[in-house]
Write a structure and sequence with these properties.
Blueprint: E1 2-5, H1 11-23, E2 27-30, H2 42-47, E3 55-58, E4 61-64, H3 66-77, H4 87-118, H5 126-146, H6 160-166, H7 169-174, H8 183-193, H9 196-201
Parallel strand pairs: 1-2
Antiparallel strand pairs: 1-3, 3-4
Helix pairs in contact: 1-3, 4-5, 4-6
Length: 215
């Protein structure tokens, strides 16, 4: 059976669990990281030398890094549903996945969520937070234009691009921050909320992370 290591409140674990839910894969979830610890144990480091979650084990295969896991699962059992077998279509998905990790996730998860929510009040760097918020606004406005006239980021069907990027939406809209008007992104968010796997694995309360920089 597929095994997944990670904590439910982890952003990167949520991406993986969302896809597992969409694929309806039987799995065993093993709590790790944060208050559960275990990332520095020899057995875990033997699977992922970086000591980070998520990690999956599928038979003899060990895969770490969330986007590598997404691609592995989509290729292994997705039958082209979420990550196309056509190299041109797949490259479009990959481009948005990479953009999510290097741009959106860096500015939102790193700059805003960590800088604002996970940092204790007295330690917040407000100029850096405001700059990250401005960059995030530009990112989401770009997505708003992309979503015009289509239910999902790249057309009529959910892809790994939606999963990689859409995992940000619950936190983005739940935080007490300033946001631009984003009618298409908000409509896309409502569409994703209709996915049972999104509701179960992404819309996870994150109060336990407030003011905590230690995990």
């Amino acid at each position: 059976m597929l095994k997944v290591w990670g904590r439910r409140s982890s952003f990167n674990v949520q991406k993986v669990m969302w896809l597992i839910g969409e694929l309806e894969l039987a799995h065993e979830h093993i709590d790790a990281g944060g208050k559960f610890g275990g990332l520095d144990l020899p057995d875990f480091l033997a699977m992922n030398p970086h000591g980070r979650i998520p990690v999956i084990q599928d038979g003899d295969a060990i895969v770490w890094e969330s986007h590598a896991i997404l691609r592995y699962l989509a290729a292994r059992v997705g039958a082209g549903q979420f990550w196309s077998g056509d190299p041109v279509a797949r490259a479009r998905i990959d481009g948005w996945m990479d953009w999510s990790q290097t741009s959106l996730q860096a500015d939102f998860l790193g700059g805003v969520f960590w800088g604002f929510y996970r940092t204790p009040d007295a330690e917040r760097n407000w100029p850096a937070i405001r700059a990250a918020l401005k960059r995030c606004a530009a990112h989401f406005e770009k997505l708003d234009r992309l979503l015009e006239g289509r239910p999902y980021l790249l057309g009529d069907a959910l892809t790994l691009a939606d999963i990689a990027i859409g995992t940000s939406l619950y936190r983005y809209f739940e935080l007490e921050i300033e946001r631009p008007s984003l009618p298409q992104v908000e409509r896309w968010y409502r569409t994703l909320q209709q996915h049972a796997a999104f509701a179960e694995h992404v819309m996870v309360p994150f109060e336990e992370l407030r003011g905590h920089l230690d995990y």
